[in-house]
Amino acid sequence: MSTTRVARQSLAALLVGWLTIGGALANERWVILGGDIAETIAALGADIEVVARDDTVLHPPEMAALPSVGYLRQLSAESVLSVVPDRVLAAGHSGPKEVLEQLEAVGVTVDVIEASADLSSIVEKVRTVAQHTQRQQEGDALAASLSATLERLAALPPLPGTRAMFILHHSGLTPRVAGNDTAAHTALEAVGIDNAFGNMAGYQSVAAEALAKEAPTLVIMSQRGLDALGGENALWQLPGMRLTPAGREQRLIVIDDQALLGFGPRTPDQLFTLRQDIEALLGTEQVSR
């Protein structure tokens, strides 16, 4: 029997089992796909039974401890159905699309929350998640609070001459950094500093010559990325790093990448924290909370 046929039979068996078991459930069982969606549910205090999540859900800890159904961009119907869900609440980039259609075909309610790739999406997601979880009043309050924080952030003056390099991770001796059209680029603009590699698109590896040419003032990266690199000493030993102002002065800010770049309810406060950390590192004082 071919592997493809076995896989189809396995999926069919799971579908039948889900229909038999799922119909007897008294309470809705939710699967959450997307770290930003999970954080929004937690911030709203939504009273729903979440039984599983995807690999990108790292916060809050109690949700991160739930079984994972895989990576949200590479889901399988078998994995999701194995936790017997009634509903799936998914970030817009969840998929493949065919898998979500398979789930709907057997009666699972699948709600996909599409959001733009900018800070305005944070408030939009809060209101949408609040509607799906019947937390409209809490959603309105949270949306108002987040909007006020983002407005205060937008009112802060820029920090002229401050050029940051955001390192996603490294590949060998070559750091992979954020260019434009990335969440990191949006975050740097939001806190009033320039992206030293804003003239390139997406995330790309950069060589020593590019580091020296773009001359970043400081480096921003996550603790996970720094640990994977081998620690701060390893960072400053990367080829070309000592040719930059950041490398010579060893200016580094370590961030929580999911909180900052996930564009969830923690992001506005994390942006303020980043701005404060930059000012402390450079010896300026312009942040007012």
Ordered list of secondary-structure elements with their pairings:
Blueprint (H helix, E strand, L loop, with lengths): L2 H20 L6 E5 L1 H10 L4 E5 L7 H4 L12 H5 L5 E5 L5 H9 L3 E5 L6 H13 L3 H19 L8 E9 L2 E5 L4 H8 L3 E2 L7 E3 L2 H7 L3 E5 H7 L2 H5 L8 H5 L2 E4 L1 H5 L5 H16 L7
Pfam family, one: Peripla_BP_2
InterPro entries: ABC_Transporter_SBP (IPR050902), ABC_transptr_periplasmic_BD (IPR002491)
Protein name: ABC transporter substrate-binding protein
Polypeptide structure, described:
It is a single chain. By secondary structure, the protein is α/β, with parallel strands linked by helices. The protein folds into 2 domains: 3-151, Nitrogenase molybdenum iron protein domain (Rossmann fold), CATH 3.40.50; 163-282, 3-Layer(aba) Sandwich (Rossmann fold). The chain is 46% helix and 17% strand. It contains 14 helices and 10 strands. It has helices at 3-22, 35-44, 61-64, 77-81, 97-105, 120-132, 136-154, 183-190, 208-214, 223-229, 232-236, 245-249, 257-261, 267-282; strands at residues 29-33, 49-53, 87-91, 109-113, 163-171, 174-178, 194-195, 203-205, 218-222, 252-255. Strands 5, 6, 7, 8, 9 and 10 form a 6-stranded mixed sheet that branches. Strand 5 (163-171) and strand 6 form a beta hairpin. Helix 2 (35-44) packs across helix 6 and helix 7 runs parallel beside helix 14. The longest helix has 20 residues, at 3-22. The radius of gyration is 22 Å and the shape is globular.
